Structure formats: structure tokens, C-alpha cells
Amino acid sequence: MAVKQTAGRDALGEFAPKFAELNDDVLFGQVWSREDKLSLRDRSLVTVVALMAQGLVDSSFQYHLTTARQNGITRQEIAEILTHAAFYAGWPKAWAAFRMAKEVWAGEDGGDGKAMHQKEMVFPIGAPNDGFAQYFVGQSYLQPLSTSQVGVYNVTFEPGCRNNWHIHHGDKGGGQILVCVAGRGWYQEWGKQARALHPGDVVNIPTGVKHWHGAASDSWFSHLALEVPGENCSNEWLEAVSETEYEKLG
């Protein structure tokens, strides 16, 4: 997913057009967009630590803290990141960074996590997913967005919530597409390593593949579930994901 940036042209487009071009098109348009090499979340982590190490806690640092939160870094994680970096970058720099980080993540700790999660996305969380509760560990929520042409549903998982292993069946099509819209989660296919999910990630799930998906243990998570049209489509629900295997993911 390409990162769109106009800050350079907005601030310096007339005064320093080349600098503005390099900032918007190269740094963000090319370097930040190389998600096949490093995820946006990891780039945010590296950038925050690099700026903190230089003692740069100005508006650019606040921008990158905000971006880090949008890219899935939680309050608990930024606290641990800055604490770890303090031993290498300097204690006073960490104090300054923490003051700004508290503002960016204000309300997330000790507040209404569900309400905070809702603010991060345009789609409603919806009602408790009681109709499928037997196939989930933890509380999930469901909001239908479209039930004609292609079924589209916003599925939200509270921290630690995940669905059971399951398989989508279908003839001549079928399966499911997940479009991640907020928070941080996991997707795993049987016999493969789990894949971390962040806003903007897309997961294509063909028929016949045993899999599960859900939230990280310390983060709310929402994805759009798109039903791929097909013939004789059905879901086969299987066993729950074991606590032992889930806890390994962090």
C-alpha cells in the first residue's frame, strides 16, 4: 500500500520544491511504501526510536508517534519500546518522548477500549455476535455492511478473541477475503506460521483451507469479511485454537 504524503509540498513547495519532492515522493512515496521489505508498523518503530535517540521531540516526532499508533503499535508496546531505548539513547530523551507519547495514546489505558477502537475506523462495531458465539473464544461483534451482490461484514474482536479453526467450502468459487481496518490481529492456516495483521492488510482465503483469525492478546481488531460468490457455499466449524498455541503469538 503506497503511502501518500503532501506535507513537503504544503510547507515548502514554493520555497524548496526539490526538498518537498524528495520528502513526499521518495521518502514516503518510495521508502515508506516498501512493505515487501519492512511493514509500516516496523518502519514506525524504527523511526520513533531514531528520532528519540536524537532528542527530536518536536512536531515531526508527534506526527510519527501518531502514525505509529495508526500502524498498530499499542500503548503497552510504545511504553516498552521507549523504556528499552532509554538505556541506549539516554534517560532524559526518554522522559521527553514519554510526555508526548502519553498525549498520543491518551485514554487508551484504563479507558473504554471499545470506544477508542471505534474512533479508529469509519465502520460501526455493531452488535455482539451472538449467533456465532459458540465458534469464538472471547467476545466478537458483527455489523453487516452489504447483504446483496457480495456479502460484506465488519467483524470486531476484543483483545484475545479469535474464532475457531474453520474451512470455507464451495463449488465454482467461494471462500473469503479479509480487509483489515483497525487494530492488530492474527491469521493462520493449518500447518503454517501465523501472520500478523494490521490496517490495510488483505487476506485471501480460498475454499478448502483450514484457518482461523482474530485479535492480538493486547489489541482490539476489526476486519471486513467479504464472501466470495460461489455455488453450494458453506462453513465447516472445527476445534478452538488452543491457549498454548495462541499465547505463543504474543
From TrEMBL:
Pfam families linked: CMD, Cupin_2
Chain ranges of the Cupin type-2 domain: 155-218
GO molecular function, one term: peroxiredoxin activity
SUPFAM superfamilies xref list: AhpD-like (SSF69118), RmlC-like cupins (SSF51182)
InterPro entries referenced in this protein's UniProt entry, alphabetically: AhpD-like, CMD-like, Cupin_2, HNL-like_cupin, RmlC-like_jellyroll, RmlC_Cupin_sf
Entries under PANTHER family matching the protein: BLL4564 PROTEIN (PTHR43698:SF1), RIBD C-TERMINAL DOMAIN CONTAINING PROTEIN (PTHR43698)
Name recorded for this polypeptide: Carboxymuconolactone decarboxylase family protein
Protein source organism: Candidatus Flavonifractor intestinigallinarum
Organism lineage string: Bacteria, Bacillati, Bacillota, Clostridia, Eubacteriales
